[in-house]
Amino acid sequence: MPGQRPSLVAAQAEVSAAARRRETGRFRQERAVLVAVEFTGERRKLTAAVRQARRAAEVSAGTNHESSIPPVRETDLDFEASLAEFEELARSAGAEVAATLVQRRARPDAATLVGHGKLDEIEGVVASTDADLVLFDHDLTPSQLRNLEARLPCRVIDRTQLILDIFARHARTREGQLQVELAQLEYQLPRLAGRGKAMSQLGGGIGTRGPGETQLETDRRKINLRIDHVKEQLESVRRVRRQQRQRREAVPVPVVTLVGYTNAGKSTLFNALTEAGVLESSKMFATLDPKLRQLTLPSRRKVLLSDTVGFIRNLPHTLVTSFRATLEEVERAELLLHVRDASSPMMDEQKAQVERVLGELDVAGKPIIEVLNKIDLVPEGTLEIRPGIVAVSGLKRQGLGSLMAAIDAALVRDPLTEATFRLPQSEGRVMAALEAGAVVLEKRFVGNLAYVRVRGAASLMDRFRSFRERSAEEKSARKKRT
Known about the structure:
Elements: H1 8-23, E1 31-39, H2 48-60, H3 76-92, E2 96-105, H4 116-129, E3 133-136, H5 142-151, E4 155-157, H6 159-170, H7 174-188, H8 215-250, E5 255-260, H9 266-274, E6 291-296, E7 302-307, H10 317-322, H11 328-332, E8 335-341, H12 347-360, E9 368-373, E10 389-391, H13 400-410, E11 416-424, H14 428-437, E12 439-446, E13 449-457, H15 458-463, H16 472-481
Parallel strand pairs: 1-2, 1-3, 3-4, 5-7, 5-8, 8-9, 9-10
Antiparallel strand pairs: 6-7, 11-13, 12-13
């Protein structure tokens, strides 16, 4: 029947066949028609950052009252940036954009999201471009998806399904693949209903009537069983990760995590700081699996730098939930580096989207350094650098020294301190440990003793506190106590 979805088994077979075609290099690039819808009756509110900037502008102009603030209106720039982002999502999924259609309407159509006239236009464009699928920059309800598939002569995919497909392409580790599968299954489960004759009683016909399991119930049962199985496997992965983390925490090393909007240049900056050689790509969600590398700071203390998956506007909640195992590095981090694309016209909105996801992860209260990346793409003198913000270019390796110094200063859990140690010549191991883990400010020898003044992490100083030379104030205070 036209518009009838394949069964669960057939769909899984199709996915497997597509994967085999990709592996053998015989996968034809699919042509896609993109549909973006702007609902003028439900315009999004301005982000807190934009509101604050507007109020600040009013204060500087001497009119500090709400009536002077222009009415909330989603700008054309916002919609154009959202449309460009959607097109980049389609290309990252491997699609060739055959056409892009835009509709502005007061509210969504309950049956098909778009109006009947626009649906006729989409059908005509699909036929004229020989498109393989239609991508909607909006989440579709199960009924909307069913109605659109019944009307259009090709597959229909909404925003969440598109992002899930990109995640599936970039998952390399077993953990990442399991998390993607879990998110896909949870997305698919409520969309099984209403598949015409596929929902009839199993068997059917004379001699088979009576109580039985419908195809819908069968598919739901299979998916629920698979979800339970994937969750068990993910829990096993989490146990291994917890064991690895416990081994790391036995020798405490601070964890610093890169977070930010997708395609903000996190992986390029990660490589610039650590020489890790991880994949750098302009495609969205190129980094899916977390990366950990050791980084030596100017104070010579060592930290673990973590690269994580990028965020995006309207990030599906199922992804945030499914990727909690990966995002545990964010939860465990002592310091977050919020990497922002300084060349993006939507910097403020992207920042708000990242902060929203961090709030969902309950880590919004952690210390954060804002890192404005890609300053090589911004005209000189146009960036406003406030306290707590570091400007860098991961590609050109500019500003990395300032960033590492800022990381050093922000690790307050193990702050930098200065101390002088009085070491006998027989304690060469202590001298070597201090020289390797701290900055030697002064060294002098008196007879068989070495006096070393160093600046480093308080934890390192505390390890060798028995060799510390007391200051004049400490000696005076001790003499008074005795």
